[in-house]
Amino acid sequence: MSWQKEIDELRYRQELAKQMGGKENVARQHAKGRLTVRERVDLLLDQGSFREIGSLAGTSEYDEKGELKSFTHASRVLGCGRINGRAVFVEGGDFTIHGGPATPLTLVSPGGFSGPRLPLERRIPYIRLIDSAGGSVRAIEEQGHAEMPVYPDRWGVPAALMARVPVISAALGSLGGAPPVEAAASHWSIMTKNTSELFVGGPPLVKQALGIEISKEELGNYKVHAYQSGVIDNVAEDERDAFRQIRLFLSYLPPNVWHQPPRLETGDEPNRKDEELLSIIPHNHRRLYDIREVIRHIVDKDSIFEIAPFYGRSLVTLLARMDGFPVAIISNDCRFFGGAQTADGCEKMMRFVDFADTFHLPIIYLVDCPGFMIGPDSEKQGIERKSARLAIALTQITVPAISILIRRVFGVAGGLHAALSRLNLRYAWPSLYWGSLPIEGGAMAAYRREIEAASDPDAKRIEIENKLMRLCSPFRSAEAFSPEEIIDPRETRPILCGFVKDAQEITTTQLGPKARMGMRP
């Protein structure tokens, strides 16, 4: 006896599921410049690798004979697939079905299956393709009662995931309620430039509560969340670009914390010494330069992937490769606030070092920090508390870390580099200029009476500043064994490639979750 009849019904139901919310709703989704969840999964994953879980979950209608009349799939699509041959778990909301809400049906099955538990137990990366309007009061009528907003595994499992596997969120539509919070609870997040927004309460709620008329774009588009709030790390031109960036981001990471990041052969000579590094830092420390150009001369060619480039812009955080090994690189960008450490920059750096430590990425800090950003705005943003949290994070990292002091290193902010609780071997370039305070401004604070009592205060101030500048030679400091070594800038790449290669011997002994539960989102 054959089971072909039942197999035919299985295929029929699966085909109905692929119709999602119907042609009209799919067309409406496309008209907004957005793909459907199934199109997204196909574009993100290696061709033909997706194995769906719960393909028959949904709502059905039967006739009086018990024959199936209609079937609508649940508003979530989830399953396993591969990216560049490596296993991943993907979950995405289907906006064509009631706006893709995260109903209890889509979160956990009666048998106890919960989507996020699978990547947790299989130890594979978890990717959320978020396109959900969140909860709706319409559910009260549909269910016949108001629901207590607590669901199994809503936060406990994601917290455990972040301690063990890479978690990625892509905001691909208008996200409201819980989905934007889920987007933030990730190691890395991305949103599309013109087809996504996110907010905990949309324009109707804002109008009702605050009396403010505002559009979805003004409330929560990429300019709000990638440039100002820092909720989203990177921005994509469109969905295809988002999937390209997701695949690239994952290439730097291990599948879980029990593995080291994968080395790729880049063909770049580890002993390369670029002549441009000899003159790339201006003698006048007030002049600007492009720190990304400095980094390009040091890391493997074409290996840079910048994280959160528009937030906390006086600080640069990026992934790159040194002799094929993935590394986490931090530096200051003197083109924004002179490279001063801001409250946003503290937050950005703290998250980044936690992320690097979680996934065993050696940390390299190219230091050019004139100190904390000062002024009333900085005080209102809580620069002191943010810097204290950063200092604690730097004492907790366990991966090998190294600092290259390339120009200014001033004050407490300048001292917040590399691993604060361990031996901190620092290499300095001859362009190093450092101290507790910059001489300009600092001289006036320290020698105010002498300067104001002089017949020519300006001339006296300049005299004192010039005297102090002569004493600030890095060679004088090196005589006191601080910094530990001054190097030719052209030697930086060979030194760092050696450091990163040696670091692999240490990180291989540190595999597994850290004592703290993952990264601070």
Characterise the protein shown here:
The chain folds into 3 domains: 7-251, Alpha-Beta Complex (2-enoyl-CoA Hydratase, Chain A, domain 1), CATH 3.90.226.10; 275-432 and 483-507, Alpha-Beta Complex (2-enoyl-CoA Hydratase, Chain A, domain 1), CATH 3.90.226.10; 437-472, no CATH class. Helices cover 37% and strands 19% of the residues. The strands form 4 sheets. Strands 12, 13, 14, 15, 16, 17, 18 and 19 form an 8-stranded mixed sheet that branches. Helix 14 packs parallel to helix 16 and helix 18 crosses helix 20. The protein is elongated.
Structure summarized in a few sentences:
By secondary structure, this protein is α/β, with parallel strands linked by helices.
Walk me through the topology.
Elements: H1 4-18, H2 23-31, H3 37-44, E1 51-53, E2 58-62, E3 68-73, E4 76-83, E5 86-93, H4 104-107, H5 117-122, E6 126-130, H6 138-143, H7 156-162, E7 167-171, E8 174-176, H8 178-184, E9 188-192, E10 197-199, H9 203-210, H10 216-220, H11 222-229, E11 234-236, H12 239-251, H13 291-296, E12 305-307, E13 315-322, E14 325-332, H14 343-358, E15 363-369, H15 376-380, H16 383-396, E16 401-410, H17 411-415, E17 426-428, E18 433-435, H18 439-446, H19 448-453, H20 457-471, H21 474-479, E19 485-486, H22 492-507
Parallel strand pairs: 5-6, 6-7, 7-9, 8-10, 9-11, 14-15, 15-16, 16-17, 16-18, 17-19
Antiparallel strand pairs: 1-4, 2-3, 4-5, 12-13, 13-14
